[in-house]
Amino acid sequence: MDWLPRSMINASRVRTLGIDEHLFRKGDTVFGIFEVIKGRLSMVRHTSEGQKVVIHSSLEGSLFAEAALFATEYHCDGVAVEETEVRVFDKDAVFAAFRDNPELAENFMAVLARQVQVLRAKLEQRSIRSARQRLIHHFILSAEEDGRTVPLKGTLKDLAVELGLTHEALYRTLAKLEKEGLVERSATVVLLQPKLFI
Amino acid sequence: MDWLPRSMINASRVRTLGIDEHLFRKGDTVFGIFEVIKGRLSMVRHTSEGQKVVIHSSLEGSLFAEAALFATEYHCDGVAVEETEVRVFDKDAVFAAFRDNPELAENFMAVLARQVQVLRAKLEQRSIRSARQRLIHHFILSAEEDGRTVPLKGTLKDLAVELGLTHEALYRTLAKLEKEGLVERSATVVLLQPKLFI
DNA sequence: CGGCGTTTTGAGAGAGCTCAACATCGGTGG
DNA sequence: CCACCGATGTTGAGCTCTCTCAAAACGCCG
């Protein structure tokens, strides 16, 4: 959210939610959009019988319910899955800022466009069924400029989640690639070997 | 693209691409963004050894490379996978239009925000591994107001593709749900039965 | 009728998931 | 300093589920 002007951040407020606490409910008039600072929020719809269907589950640092800007009512529930902190941006204030400051509007567009890009890439990734191919795909796309070094941020478990694999599957696949000499590993980096690209 | 003013559409041009023909290449200066009218485009990156990695594959009717609006260079190749028709919107013209017409900018934001919403929902759906649960999830979310009727648009094969399943898996799963009395089917509609929601 | 695409069902194999045990490492407190 | 603990990392075995390949029924249209 580094693209936001100070003024907008100052005009926002932070709210803390306990587990299962609602940020908004279906049918509520849209009052704002959110940034998840800490914790996790879900968008949930309820069936007539009260069963929950999760539409979306947020990550820390992401925008939440930004599409609500262009609606009058929320059309699902926003619920905290864990203890969560959200920054609340007032809808009218956001729009006013956009009109005042076209550059801000462009920044927001850029953020959304980037999101779309990332999400589409992720979806493409998930369409690869084989753990091996999915991992290779990920490695190649997240390699640095040299095209061979992939920095490991966070734990392998986290990576497994990001890739939509169980951690066991990831460990095994990675070990196999290593044994076959397709990659080399250190604690912080994966080095892609030429063979991998053939 | 119904939110675009006539003037923008008139200012655009349509281009036809043959299979494997490039719309743009990595490093090219961004000249515009696109709407896929017919056919399919892919965003592709090449490894140092020349292997292709697909980042994204477009659907008909969708925007393509809209994130490029906020970059100076394309950072992957845009290639036609089939015989493809694209509408080309000049980058500068788009920006000029946004500045001239804040409402247009807002419309564009709304389109992007909606995209993000849809993509996130799809990603959530794909995170459900079981064909059965994925199908049920889809049914419940795409039910009409009554919460029980799901219209079937297109063939079941198409639905299978949308859900990321083979058509065989879809047929079988659907048949099973039907046999268990969880849904009823006609040619055009799936009726969700109360049992399904328990 | 004949051909094409969708729908359906069958059998088999492979891949990833689940459950389980164990190693490793870093931190914490006695 | 060591014992303990929790989380990550690792490997094993079995199972389930979906994919793949195959074949056939069905419906539609020329």
Description:
Two copies of one chain form a homodimer. By secondary structure, chain A is of the alpha+beta class. Chain A folds into two domains: 6-124, Jelly Rolls; 128-197, Orthogonal Bundle (Arc Repressor Mutant, subunit A). Helices cover 37% and strands 25% of the residues of chain A. Chain A has six helices and eleven strands. Chain A has helices at 6-11, 91-100, 102-126, 131-141, 156-163, 167-179, and strands at 13-17, 22-24, 32-38, 41-46, 52-57, 63-64, 77-80, 84-90, 149-151, 183-185, 189-192. A four-stranded antiparallel β-sheet of chain A has the order 1-8-3-6. In chain A, a hairpin with a 5-residue loop joins strand 4 (41-46) and strand 5 (52-57). In chain A, helix 2 (91-100) crosses helix 3 and helix 5 (156-163) packs across helix 6. The longest helix of chain A is centred in the middle third of the chain and has 25 residues, at 102-126. The radius of gyration of chain A is 20 Å and the shape is globular. The first copy, chain A, starts with 5 loop residues before the first helix and ends in a 6-residue tail after the last strand. Chain A binds a DNA duplex (30 and 30 nucleotides) through helix 6.
